[in-house]
């Protein structure tokens, strides 16, 4: 059917209500319409309607033959949308009205029976849950992929010494592997949150009706089983007016984006001439239109920037819901663009960052050179004296003095001669050089969670196990 006749059906549907004697103003129609953004739920809308019609037929609420023709009609609509033979009509109020109008124009009166024992309020609640259930799975796959990518890079850099920072000041020696594995921990929590959110999404609201359920003897459990939900909602008012799962998913995505943004920020720093710890592959960086020397980490800057809008999406959703009385209010139509934006953005960011990380070059020597300059072994120098019997506070003071001597002479603790050490404290011996070497400093931090190779290898192994990965 062409869009013109579809439009007629929709107009007719609006008048079926019988309450109105005039067509709605064109501007108001546009203002009300959500089809431009909810059309992406067409598959889920049809899937939900097929389950509903099947149940209505089985329960004897509508004729079995009507149920069969509804299911066939819906399958035809789905096929035509997917092939491009049927396009969405922008004058339709929403995807639900569009599909129903199409169905009625295709199969006649049977189509008008689909909406028995159902309201768009529980229909839309069902559709969003079905849609977000799929999206949450896709995000999980990508987040897992990123975590595994970081594990892979980490396993190649368990001996790549770099400075660890606090206050962005060189603090203590760690390895690149150890640093990356910190991000894996964040991602593991993100994945856990997504899994928990998926459980709360996976509850079936159909049967809530407009707000007060229905007088028809529907079988909610049957619809639940057909659509593979884990349970049905317990209160019809809540069933149609709950958008917690949208807010929760957007919140989980915002947290994930915040993690991607922190990693992005570090990559931006590491790419700078001031750091030069990594180099991005040419395919994942851009040049400047005026400055020929530039190679900009645009992807990571965009990820950092887009994190702001995803945080905005969460605020949009919370603010949209916070003053709503029960049950459904049209304000809730505003849930979709925000949650869709969060979902689209995080998928885009994850799928761009993964190959960017896989192809980046790690400039080990630069990391090491910087690690050698920042007195990041000062704690280890103090600990050396503690092992010789000095109280830590005394050892700390002596080491502080030695650092000051080095700064004055423009040298490092590794290069300072033994005489200078002994002058500061006679407990120093030749073995101090071994104790403060960067490799020793890292290797000695073998407490589980620390940067020593064996500890990081355990972290990687455990993370991969959590991610369900064969070793
Ligand atoms: N397009 C609407 C939405 O997204 C569908 C529900 C409409 N219900 C209503 N009573 N107007 O929320």
Explain briefly what this protein structure is.
Helices cover 63% and strands 4% of the residues. The protein has 471 residues and is mostly helical.
Count of individual beta strands: 6
Counted by DSSP, the helix tally is 21
What portion of residues belong to β-strands? under 5%
**CATH domain fold name of the largest domain:** Fumarase C, Chain A, domain 2
CATH architecture of the largest domain: Up-down Bundle
Gyration radius, rounded: 31 Å
Order of helices and strands: HHHHHHHHEEHEHEHHEHHEHHHHHHH
Question: What does the oligomeric state look like here?
Answer: single chain
Task: Return the CATH class of the largest domain.
Answer: Mainly Alpha
Cα-to-Cα separation, first versus last residue: 55 Å
Largest sheet: 2 strands, antiparallel
| Category by helix and strand content | mainly alpha
Overall average residue pLDDT:
94
What is the molecular shape? elongated
The CATH superfamily of the largest domain bears the name Fumarase/aspartase (Central domain)
Low-confidence stretches: none
- The percent range for helix content is 55-70%
Hetero groups in this structure are: arginine
The overall number of domains is 3
Which sequence of strands runs across the widest sheet?
Answer: 1-2
